[in-house]
Specification:
Strand content: 15-25%
Helix content: 25-40%
Distance between the termini: 32 Å
Strand order of the largest sheet: 9-11-6-12-10-13-14
Number of strands: 14
C-alpha cells in the first residue's frame, strides 16, 4: 500500500482552511496601519511574506517554523553520537528568509523562537553550541543580523527532551520598484534553483518511513549516494536570498518567485492569477527522493505533491532575460536551469509535467 503525506497525520486541506480563515480576519485589521504612517498594499495577502507600504519603501515580515526535522537530528544523535543542530539551525533560518525574499525583500533582522519542555535541554553543550553557531551562520548567509529571540520553557506543552524551533524576520524593499509583484506573462521562462534535499518539508512522512526500516535512519540510501538516510535528510537547506540580491544588483526583473516548500510542485502555481506552468525539462529526482519513493512506497505523483524533488526555488522571467538570470544565479553560487514555460489557457490554473505524466490542477492548491 502506497503512503501519502496524510498517512503521517498531515492534511493540507485542514491546515489551509485555517490559513484562509486567518487571512479573512486579518484583512479587517489593515486599517490599524494608518496611524503608523503605513498601508497594506494590494495582493500581499496569501503570499509568502506580508508587506507594509510606506511612501518610498516596503517593509516585509515573515513568521515561520522548522516543523519536525529536529526529531530526525535527535534520532541521529542517539544513533551516532553526532549532533546535527548546526544544520537544523540553518534550516530554520532558511525557511524564514526564503519566504521573505519571494517578494523582493532583503532580510534585515532575524529572531529565534526556541521553546523547550524543560530547560535541561540546553545542558547538552555540544548541541546547544551547534544550534547557536548554525543560527548565526544562517543569518550571515542571508545578510541579516540576528536580532534577538525568545526561549520559553513550556512544560506540559512540549516534550521534556524536545525543542520547537521557529522564528521571524523583517526585511525591506527599497526602491519600491524592486517589489516582486506577480507580473507574469504567457511565454515567461521558468527558472529552477536546486535544493539540497528535502530541506524543511515532508519530514513527518520521512519519519514514518524511518520507523518501518530495519536500520532506521542508518539505512544507506543508495542510488549512487553513499550517505545514510538520516544524513541525507539532515543536509542543511539552501538559502536563496543571494539569488534575489544578485538579480537586483544586475537590474534583472523577476516577475514572480515561488519558494518550493509545503505542497511540493503544486507551489509553482501559488500566484493568484491563472496560468499553466509547463515543466519541460525536469531533472531526474536526486537519490534521496528515489529512495523515499521506493521505501514508502510512495507514488510518483504523491512525491511531487509533497516534496520539492530537487527544486527549492523557482523564478518566472521574461524569456529574453533567462540567460542573464541563469548567469546571476551561477555567480551567486546556485545550481540553476531553465525548466519550462508559462502558458495562458483561459481561466485554467495548473502545473503540468508531460514527461512524467503528472498534472496538478488549480484546485489542488488552496492557500488563499
Amino acid at each position: 500500500m502506497s503512503l501519502s503525506y496524510e498517512s503521517s497525520g498531515v492534511r493540507y486541506d485542514q491546515l489551509d482552511a485555517f490559513k484562509r480563515d486567518c487571512q479573512r480576519a486579518a484583512r479587517g485589521t489593515a486599517g490599524e496601519l494608518t496611524a503608523h504612517g503605513y498601508a497594506e498594499p494590494a495582493t500581499t495577502r496569501g503570499e509568502s511574506a506580508y508587506l507594509i507600504e510606506a511612501a518610498d519603501h516596503f517593509l516585509a515580515h515573515v513568521e515561520e517554523g522548522l516543523g519536525t526535522k529536529n526529531l530526525v537530528a535527535d534520532a541521529m544523535q542517539a544513533a551516532t553520537g553526532r549532533t546535527f543542530y548546526r544544520e537544523i539551525a540553518i534550516d530554520t533560518v532558511a525557511t524564514i528568509v526564503n519566504d521573505l525574499a519571494t517578494c523582493g525583500a532583503l532580510p534585515i533582522s532575524v529572531a529565534m523562537h526556541a521553546a523547550v519542555g524543560e530547560s535541561g535541554w540546553f545542558a547538552d553543550a555540544a548541541r546547544r553550541e551547534a544550534l547557536v553557531a548554525g543560527w548565526a551562520e544562517g543569518c550571515r548567509q542571508a545578510g541579516a543580523v540576528w536580532g534577538g529571540g525568545e526561549t520559553p520553557t513550556l512544560r506540559g506543552l512540549v516534550e521534556p527532551n524536545t525543542i520547537v524551533l521557529a522564528g521571524s524576520a523583517i526585511g525591506k524593499i527599497a526602491p519600491k520598484s524592486l517589489r516582486i509583484t506577480g507580473d507574469v506573462r504567457a511565454g515567461d521562462a521558468i527558472i529552477f534553483l536546486a535544493s539540497s534535499g528535502v530541506q524543511t518539508n515532508g519530514l513527518s512522512l520521512c519519519r514514518l518511513i524511518a520507523e518501518r526500516l530495519p536500520q532506521g535512519y542508518l539505512t544507506p540510501i543508495g542510488f549512487g549516494d553513499a550517505r545514510s538516510y538520516g544524513e541525507a535528510l539532515l543536509a542543511p537547506s539552501v538559502i536563496y536570498v543571494a539569488f534575489v540580491r544578485e538579480c537586483q544588483r544586475r537590474n534583472l526583473k523577476l516577475n514572480y518567485v515561488a519558494h518550493v516548500t509545503g505542497h511540493g510542485w503544486r507551489k509553482l502555481m501559488r500566484l493568484d492569477e491563472p496560468f499553466v506552468y509547463e515543466i519541460t525539462a525536469p531533472r531526474p529526482a536526486p537519490a534521496l527522493f528515489r529512495f523515499l519513493e521506493q521505501a514508502g512506497p510512495i507514488t510518483t505523483r504523491e512525491m511531487y505533491a509533497t516534496f520539492n524533488q530537487g527544486v527549492g526555488f523557482a523564478a518566472y522571467v521574461n524569456p529574453q532575460s533567462a540567460p542573464a538570470v541563469l548567469a546571476a544565479a551561477k555567480a551567486a553560487g546556485y545550481d540553476a536551469w531553465q525548466a519550462g514555460t508559462v502558458r495562458k489557457e483561459g481561466s485554467r490554473k495548473a502545473v503540468v509535467v508531460p514527461s512524467l505524466g503528472i498534472t496538478f490542477e488549480g484546485d489542488t492548491l488552496q492557500v488563499r
